[in-house]
UniProtKB/TrEMBL annotation:
It holds the Pfam family HIT. This is Hit-like protein. A motif (Histidine triad motif) lies at residues 91-95. GO terms for biological process: nucleotide metabolic process. GO terms for molecular function: catalytic activity. PROSITE patterns: HIT_2 (PS51084). Residues 4-107 form the HIT domain. It comes from the Bacteria. InterPro entries: Histidine_triad_HIT, HIT-like, HIT-like_sf. The active site is at H93 (tele-amp-histidine intermediate). The lineage of its organism: Bacteria, Pseudomonadati, Bacteroidota, Bacteroidia, Bacteroidales.
């Protein structure tokens, strides 16, 4: 059975897309730790990120870098933190989170509750920065 992220990539389940190329898809985490919290996933369904081929893992990070630059442009922050957990959804994904301090990366922190309009605003700001950037 397809993972929830494959169903998102296929458009069967809606998502707030921020960037896409032929191999990877980036969209807002539905339970964000901060405005701009984004997930980067490979379109090929692989559970564990370290089961990706070397080339695919490298390309995923290059794609994630382009998304991180767009996040930082749209949501000024000290850095964009990167984390891989993957215990909830068995489809490899990188979390990109705008942070001001180390504790902004603690996954047990309370999540933001954004309205649909706010999610759309966040996704639009990042995707516009991404489309305007140098990929
Ligand atoms: P992890 O597998 O890295 O522990 O956590 C999975 C992440 O995916 C969580 O941060 C969760 O909020 C996010 N997530 C789970 N299901 C969905 C979904 O259907 N849509 C979106 N946008 N994010 C999801």
């Amino acid at each position: 059975m397809a993972t929830i992220f494959s169903r998102i990539i296929a458009g069967e389940i809606p998502s707030y897309k921020v960037a896409e190329n032929d191999k990877f898809y980036a969209f807002l985490d539905i339970n964000p730790l901060a405005k701009g919290h984004t997930l980067v996933v490979p379109k090929r369904e692989v559970d564990y990120i370290f089961d990706l081929d070397d080339d695919e893992l490298a390309a995923m990070h290059v794609f994630a870098k382009s998304v991180a630059l767009a996040i930082q442009q749209a949501f000024p922050c000290k850095k964009v933190g990167e984390a891989v957990i993957g215990l909830e959804v068995p489809h490899a994904h990188i979390h990109l989170i705008p942070i001001q301090k180390e504790s902004d990366m603690i996954f047990s922190n309370p999540k933001l509750k954004l309205t649909n309009e706010e999610f759309v605003e966040v996704a639009t700001a990042i995707s516009q920065a991404w489309e305007g950037g140098d990929k």
